[in-house]
C-alpha cells in the first residue's frame, strides 16, 4: 500500500460500529504508525477503549498500535504494558528499535519483580545481634549516647543495596519489610496493578527459548543471576548439557565452560553474600551429578562455603579411584585447599582424613595433632551457627569405614601432609633461597646514607633488609654489618630482631636453632635477664617464621607470653601469637590475651587488641566483639583503643552484610579511634567485593569526617574494596589525589598502591609521580611506597618508567636535605620493590582467584606503621613467590624443562645497580686569561712554521679574541692534531667492527622451580610428554604433574634449605657493642662469643654446608646486649662529691 499522507480517514473508521472497519483501520495504522504517530496520538483514547472492550475481536491489534504510539511519545512503561497485551502481534524476532526497547524494558521489569521476591535478600536482617548496643555505652565514653555522629549511619535505609548493575529501580526495596510494593508509576507497579505477570513471564519464556535455540546460554545466565532466580539458572545449565548430549551424544567442554562462566560470575560480579552462597550450592549440586566433574571447581565452591566435610569427601573419592591421575588431582586439590583456606578449615579436613586411617596410624598421628577437644565442641557449635546463617548446606559426616589398601593409606597421609602446609612452605623457601637476587649495592647505599644512630633511620634500613631478604633464609647482611647493627637500641633493637622472622619466614624446621640465643629464658619473677627488646622481638620473629601455621609455635609462644611479666616481652609475644595463630579460633589463646589486656598497659594494649582479632579472624564471634567494644569504651589509652578497633575489623573479615551492625555502631561513636576502626571494618568485611554500597560510604566519609585519621583510612580502604577492579581506582581517586588535605592525598596514594600492586598500571604511576614533589613529607612517603608496590617485579620491557623511578628513589634516600619521613618511606620502598630477592610479588588474591587471607591481613596491618613501625613487618605476609614448582605423584620435584613462548628479556630481572667507586670532589678547572690562550695559539703557529713538515694543525679561532673576559682551560682541547684524528678514526672503526646486538629469539626453556611471573603463565607450555600438569591452565605455585613413565629413572631436585638439622645451636653469651671492635661494614669482625664460628659454618657444625642462620647467630651478641638506658641493666657508679676551691680574697 502506498504510504498515507494523513491518518485522519483511518482514525475516523475507529468510530464505526462495524468491527471489520475498526479492525481494518487498526491494521493500516499499525503499518503506518512510525510515520503518522503524531496524528494517531490524538486518538489514543479511542484505541485504548477498543483494547479494553471485551467484545472487540482484535484487542491485541489495538494494544500493539497503542504500544507503538506510547513508544514514540517516550512513555516506555505504558508502551511495555500494551505490548504485553498484544500477544502474538508483538514479535520478538523482528529487528527494530521498538522491539529492542520493549524487550529490554521487559527484562528489567522481570529482574526487579523476581529479585524482590527472593527470600535471601532478608538475610541481612537476620544477622546475630551483639549482647549490648553501641549507643548505651558506659565508663569513659558514656556521654556518647547523647552525641550525634559526624557521619551518616551505615544502614540499608540510608544506603540501599543496588542490583548487580546498579539499577535505580531496586533502590526502593527494603528487605526488612514484608511483601514487595513497587513505587507508584514504576514499571513494576503497572505490571502488578494490571495483572500482566503472566504475559510478562510468557515474553521472557519466548526470549529464553530463542536464546536456547541460538546457543546463547550466557545471556540467560546473566538474567537469572540478576533476577536472583535459581530455578532459571538450574534450568539453563541442565538445558545446555542436554543440548550437547543430543547433538554429540555426550557432555562436551561447552557445558564445562558454561559452568566455569557461572562460577566466575558468582565470584566476581555477585556482591551479596547470601545470593553467592545459594548459587555456589547450586553449582556444587550440579557438579556432583556429572560423571566426571571438574573437581577444581568443586574445591573452589567448597572453600568459599566453608564445607570441610565436602572437601574431605572429594579427596576420599579421588583416592578410592586409585589411578595415578586421580591421585595427582587429589594432591593438586590439597595444595589449592592449603593456599585458599583458613587454619581451622584445614585442621578439620585433616582430622576427617585421619578417620579413614587404621587405629594404629591414628595413634601415631595423634602425637602431632594439637589437643583441642574442649575447644572443638564450642567451635563446631559456632561453626554450625555461622553456616546456618550463611545458608550453607549441612556438612556431611565422614564415612566410618577405614581404608585398608596400603597405597590408599599412603595417599591419605600425603594429602594430610600437604594440608599441613609444610610441603608448600619448604618448596617456596627452597626456591627463594636458590634464586635469591638481592642487590646488595642498593642495601649498602641505604645503610651508608642513613645515619644509624638515628632510630627512625636504623629502623628504615632494618625494614628494607627484611623486605629484600623476605623468606629467602639469607641473613648474611646482619653478619657483615655488626657495627651498624650494634647501634640499635630499645625499639630499634626490637624491630631488628623481628626482622629475622621476616627473613626466615617459613623456615619452621630451623626456627628453634635460629632464635634460641634471643628467646627469653625461664623467669623466676625477677627482672628480665638480657635485653627485653630483643627477647620481645624474638617472640614476634618466632610468630613471623611460623606465620599462619599454628603447629607447635602457638603453644611455645603462649608459654613464654604467660611466663614473662615484662611489657616489652609481652608486646612481642602478643604479636607472635596473633600472626602464628591467625584465624585459628583458639578460645584459650584469646582468653590469655584478654587477661593481659585487662592489666591496663598501654604498651601491651595495642598488640593484644590486634592479636585478639587475628586469632578470631573472620569468625564474627559475638562474644569477642562484645568484650572488645566494652573495654574500648572503658579504657583511657588511645593505643589500646586503636588496637581493639583494628582487632574488631579483623573479626568481621569477609562477613559483608553481616558486619553492617558493627560498622554502624563504630561509625556512630564520637571517638575518632573507633570510627577509624569502623572504616577498617568496611574494608575487611567487603574486601575484594567491589561493593557499590561500601565504596559510596567510604567516599562520603573521606570528605565529611572531622578527623584527618578517619578521612585518610577511608580513602586508603578503597584499595581493599576495589583491588579486583584495579583499573577503576585511578579514575576514582584522581580528584582526591589533588585534595587540599594532605592526609587525603596520602590515602589516595596508598589506595593506588594496594589496589594496583604488582600490575605496573600506567594510569596509577601517572597519578603518583607528581606526588613525589608534594610539599608534605608523609605524602611523598606514601607515593614512594605505592610506586614500589605497583612496580614490584617490573622491568623496562614491561614498564618504561622503572629505571627512572628506581634512580629517583636512590637519589632521594641519599639526599642530605630530604625530610626524615620521606627518606624512611624511600628506604622501605627500595626494599618492597625488590621483595623476596626479586622473586616475590604482592598479591591480595591467590592464583586460583580466591581472597589471599594472609596477604590481605598483612597489607592491612602494614598500613598501621603510621602509628607503630614494627607492624610494618606484616607486609611480608603479602609477598607471594612467583615460581612454577612441579611435583610428580611421589611429591618430589623432577628435573625437566618447560617452555615460555616469549622473549627472555620481557620477564627478566631488572638490572642490578652498579656500585660506583667513591671519588674525591671534582677539581674546579683553572681559569685561564684570554691573553694566555692567545699566547698558546701563537706558539702553536710558530711551531708549525718551524717544523715545516706535513703535519696538519687546525687552529680554531676563539670567539673571545675581541674581549678581555676570562677563558677556561677548555680552549686547549680545541687544538687537534693528526694523531688525534687517527685515534678518532681507529675508535670509529672499532665501533663499526663491534657486532650488533643479536635479535632476541621468541621462546626459551625454563627449568623446574624457576621464576615465572603471573603475566607469564599464559605463555607457558609443557613440551615434555613425560610430565604433564593435571590442572590447566597452569596457575603457578606448586603444580602437580602426571608422570607418564613412572618406572623410568629420573633425577630429583634436592631440598636442602628446609632439611632438618639435629645438632643443637650453641647458646650465645650477650656482649655489648663496645666489645665487637671497630670493623668495616664489609668485613666479618672477630667476636668473643664461644661457638659462634662453629655455628656460622665451622667444620662439623650444624649449619655447615647450609649457610643458614649465620647472620642470626653472629648478630645475637649485639642484639641481646643490654642498652645503657634500659631497665635492669648495670648502672654506672655514682661519682663522689666534688671539692670546690675558690681563690682567697687578697
Fill in the keyword field for this structure.
1146 residues; three-stranded antiparallel sheet; 52% helix; disordered C terminus; Proteasome regulatory particle base subunit; proteasome
The largest beta-sheet arranges its strands as 8-3-11-10
Strand content: under 5%
Q: Identify the quaternary structure here.
A: single chain
Q: Mean of residue pLDDT? A: 77
Number of helices: 50
The strand count comes to: 11
Helix/strand structural class: mainly alpha
Rounded to the nearest angstrom, the radius of gyration is 37 Å
Which parts are unreliable, with pLDDT below 50 for 5 consecutive residues or more?
Answer: 121-128, 135-180, 366-386, 389-399, 917-921, 950-977, 1062-1106, 1126-1132, 1140-1146
* Net shape: globular
Q: Determine the N-to-C terminus distance.
A: 142 Å
Q: Can you summarize the main beta sheet?
A: 4 strands, mixed
Helix residue percentage: 40-55%
Amino acid at each position: 500500500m502506498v504510504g498515507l499522507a494523513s491518518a485522519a480517514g483511518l482514525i475516523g473508521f475507529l468510530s464505526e460500529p462495524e468491527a471489520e472497519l475498526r479492525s481494518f483501520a487498526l491494521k493500516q495504522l499499525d503499518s503506518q504508525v512510525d510515520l503518522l504517530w503524531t496524528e494517531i496520538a490524538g486518538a489514543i483514547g479511542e484505541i485504548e477503549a477498543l483494547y479494553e472492550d471485551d467484545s472487540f475481536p482484535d484487542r491485541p491489534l489495538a494494544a500493539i498500535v497503542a504500544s507503538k504510539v506510547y513508544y514514540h511519545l517516550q512513555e516506555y512503561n505504558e508502551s511495555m504494558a500494551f505490548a504485553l497485551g498484544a500477544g502474538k502481534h508483538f514479535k520478538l524476532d523482528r529487528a527494530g528499535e521498538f522491539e529492542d526497547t520493549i524487550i529490554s524494558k521487559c527484562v528489567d521489569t522481570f529482574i526487579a519483580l523476581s529479585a524482590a521476591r527472593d527470600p535471601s535478600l532478608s538475610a541481612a536482617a537476620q544477622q546475630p545481634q551483639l549482647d549490648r548496643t553501641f549507643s548505651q555505652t558506659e565508663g569513659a565514653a558514656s556521654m556518647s549516647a547523647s552525641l550525634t555522629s559526624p557521619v551518616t549511619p551505615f544502614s540499608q535505609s540510608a544506603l540501599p543495596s543496588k542490583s548487580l548493575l546498579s539499577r535505580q529501580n531496586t533502590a526502593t526495596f527494603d528487605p526488612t519489610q514484608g511483601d514487595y510494593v513497587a513505587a507508584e508509576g514504576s514499571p513494576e507497579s503497572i505490571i502488578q496493578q494490571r495483572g500482566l505477570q503472566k504475559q510478562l513471564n510468557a515474553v521472557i519464556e519466548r526470549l529464553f527459548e530463542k536464546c536456547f535455540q541460538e546457543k546463547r546460554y550466557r545471556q540467560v545466565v546473566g538474567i537469572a543471576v540478576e533476577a536472583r532466580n535459581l530455578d532459571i539458572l538450574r534450568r539453563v545449565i541442565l538445558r545446555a548439557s542436554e543440548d550437547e548430549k543430543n547433538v554429540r551424544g555426550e557432555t562436551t567442554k561447552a557445558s564445562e565452560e558454561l559452568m566455569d562462566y557461572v562460577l566466575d560470575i558468582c565470584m566476581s560480579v555477585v556482591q551479596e553474600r547470601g545470593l553467592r552462597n545459594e548459587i555456589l550450592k547450586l553449582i556444587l549440586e550440579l557438579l556432583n551429578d556429572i560423571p566426571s566433574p571438574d573437581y577444581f571447581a568443586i574445591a573452589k565452591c567448597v572453600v568459599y562455603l566453608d564445607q570441610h566435610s565436602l572437601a574431605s569427601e572429594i579427596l576420599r573419592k579421588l583416592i578410592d579411584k586409585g589411578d595415578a591421575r586421580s591421585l595427582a588431582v587429589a594432591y593438586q586439590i590439597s595444595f589449592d585447599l592449603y593456599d585458599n583456606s583458613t587454619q581451622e578449615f584445614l585442621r578439620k579436613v585433616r582430622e576427617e582424613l585421619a578417620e579413614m586411617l587404621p587405629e594404629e596410624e591414628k595413634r601415631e598421628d595423634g602425637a602431632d595433632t594439637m589437643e583441642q577437644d574442649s575447644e572443638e565442641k564450642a567451635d563446631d557449635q559456632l561453626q554450625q551457627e555461622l553456616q546456618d546463617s550463611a545458608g550453607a548446606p549441612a556438612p556431611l559426616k565422614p564415612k566410618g569405614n577405614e581404608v585398608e589398601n596400603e597405597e590408599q593409606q599412603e595417599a591419605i597421609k600425603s594429602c594430610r601432609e600437604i594440608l599441613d602446609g609444610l610441603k608448600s612452605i619448604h618448596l617456596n623457601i627452597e626456591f627463594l633461597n636458590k634464586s635469591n637476587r638481592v642487590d646488595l649495592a642498593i642495601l649498602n647505599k641505604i645503610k651508608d646514607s642513613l645515619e644509624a644512630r638515628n632510630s627512625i633511620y636504623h629502623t628504615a634500613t632494618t625494614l628494607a633488609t627484611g623486605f629484600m631478604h623476605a623468606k629467602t633464609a639469607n641473613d648474611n647482611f646482619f653478619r657483615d654489618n655488626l657495627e651498624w647493627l650494634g647501634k640499635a637500641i630499645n625499639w630499634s633493637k626490637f624491630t631488628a630482631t623481628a626482622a629475622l622472622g621476616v627473613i626466615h619466614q617459613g623456615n619452621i624446621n630451623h626456627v628453634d636453632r635460629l632464635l634460641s640465643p634471643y628467646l627469653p629464658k625461664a623467669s623466676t619473677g625477677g627482672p628480665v635477664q638480657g635485653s627485653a627488646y630483643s627477647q620481645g622481638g624474638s617472640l614476634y620473629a618466632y610468630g613471623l617464621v611460623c606465620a599462619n601455621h599454628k603447629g607447635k609455635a602457638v603453644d611455645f609462644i603462649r608459654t613464654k607470653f604467660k611466663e614473662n611479666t615484662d611489657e616489652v616481652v609481652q608486646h612481642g609475644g602478643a604479636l607472635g601469637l596473633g600472626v602464628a595463630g591467625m584465624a585459628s579460633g583458639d578460645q584459650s589463646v584469646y582468653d590469655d590475651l584478654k587477661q593481659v589486656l585487662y592489666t591496663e598497659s598501654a604498651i601491651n594494649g595495642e598488640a593484644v587488641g590486634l592479636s585478639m582479632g587475628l586469632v578470631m579472624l573472620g569468625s564474627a564471634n559475638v562474644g569477642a566483639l562484645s568484650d572488645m567494644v566494652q573495654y574500648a569504651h572503658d579504657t583511657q589509652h588511645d593505643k589500646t583503643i586503636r588496637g581493639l578497633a583494628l582487632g574488631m575489623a579483623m573479626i568481621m573479615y569477609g562477613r559483608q552484610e553481616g558486619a553492617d551492625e558493627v560498622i554502624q555502631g563504630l561509625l556512630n561513636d564520637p571517638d575518632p579511634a573507633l570510627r577509624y576502626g569502623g572504616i577498617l571494618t568496611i574494608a575487611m568485611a567487603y574486601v575484594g567485593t567491589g561493593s557499590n554500597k561500601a565504596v559510596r560510604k567510604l567516599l562520603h566519609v573521606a570528605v565529611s569526617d572531622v578527623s584527618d585519621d578517619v578521612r585518610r583510612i577511608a580513602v586508603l580502604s578503597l584499595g581493599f574494596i576495589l583491588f579486583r577492579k584495579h583499573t577503576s581506582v585511578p579514575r576514582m581517586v584522581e580528584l582526591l589525589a589533588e585534595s587540599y588535605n594532605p592526609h587525603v592525598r596520602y590515602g589516595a596514594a596508598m589506595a593506588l598502591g594496594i589496589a594496583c600492586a604488582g600490575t605496573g598500571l600506567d594510569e596509577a604511576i601517572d597519578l603518583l609521580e607528581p606526588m613525589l614533589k608534594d610539599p608534605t613529607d608523609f605524602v611523598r612517603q606514601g607515593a614512594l611506597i605505592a610506586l614500589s608496590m605497583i612496580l614490584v617485579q617490573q622491568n623496562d620491557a614491561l614498564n618504561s618508567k622503572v629505571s627512572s623511578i628506581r634512580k629517583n628513589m636512590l637519589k632521594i634516600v641519599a639526599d642530605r636535605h630530604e625530610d626524615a619521613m620521606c627518606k624512611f618511606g624511600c628506604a622501605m620502598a627500595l626494599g618492597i620493590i625488590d621483595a623476596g630477592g626479586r622473586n616475590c610479588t604482592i598479591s591480595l588474591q591467590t592464583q586460583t582467584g580466591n581472597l589471599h587471607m594472609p596477604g590481605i591481613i598483612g597489607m592491612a596491618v602494614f598500613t598501621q606503621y603510621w602509628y607503630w613501625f614494627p607492624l610494618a613487618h606484616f607486609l611480608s605476609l603479602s609477598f607471594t613467590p612467583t615460581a612454577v614448582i612441579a611435583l610428580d605423584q611421589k611429591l618430589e620435584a623432577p628435573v625437566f624443562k618447560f617452555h615460555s613462548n616469549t622473549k627472555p628479556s620481557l620477564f627478566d630481572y631488572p638490572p642490578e645497580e652498579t656500585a660506583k667507586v667513591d671519588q674525591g670532589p671534582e677539581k674546579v678547572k683553572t681559569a685561564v686569561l684570554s691573553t694566555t690562550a692567545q699566547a698558546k695559539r701563537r706558539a702553536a703557529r710558530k711551531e708549525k712554521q718551524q717544523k715545516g713538515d706535513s703535519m696538519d694543525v687546525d687552529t680554531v679561532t676563539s670567539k673571545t679574541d675581541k674581549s678581555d673576559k676570562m677563558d677556561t682551560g677548555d680552549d686547549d682541547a680545541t687544538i687537534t692534531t693528526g694523531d688525534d684524528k687517527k685515534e678518532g678514526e681507529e675508535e670509529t672503526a672499532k665501533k663499526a667492527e663491534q657486532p650488533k646486538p643479536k635479535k632476541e629469539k621468541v621462546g626459551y626453556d625454563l627449568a623446574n622451580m624457576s621464576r615465572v611471573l603471573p603475566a607469564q603463565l599464559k605463555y607457558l607450555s609443557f613440551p615434555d610428554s613425560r610430565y604433564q600438569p593435571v590442572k590447566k591452565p597452569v596457575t603457578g605455585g606448586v603444580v602437580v604433574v602426571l608422570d607418564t613413565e613412572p618406572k623410568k629413572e629420573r633425577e630429583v631436585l634436592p631440598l636442602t634449605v628446609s632439611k632438618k638439622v639435629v645438632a643443637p645451636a650453641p647458646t650465645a653469651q650477650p656482649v655489648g657493642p663496645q666489645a665487637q671492635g671497630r670493623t668495616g661494614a664489609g668485613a666479618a669482625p672477630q667476636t668473643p662469643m664461644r661457638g659462634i664460628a662453629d655455628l656460622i659454618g665451622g667444620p662439623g657444625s650444624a649449619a655447615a654446608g647450609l649457610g643458614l642462620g649465620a647472620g642470626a647467630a653472629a648478630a645475637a651478641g649485639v642484639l641481646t646486649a643490654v642498652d645503657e638506658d634500659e631497665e635492669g641493666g648495670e648502672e654506672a657508679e655514682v661519682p663522689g662529691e666534688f671539692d670546690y676551691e675558690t681563690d682567697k680574697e687578697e
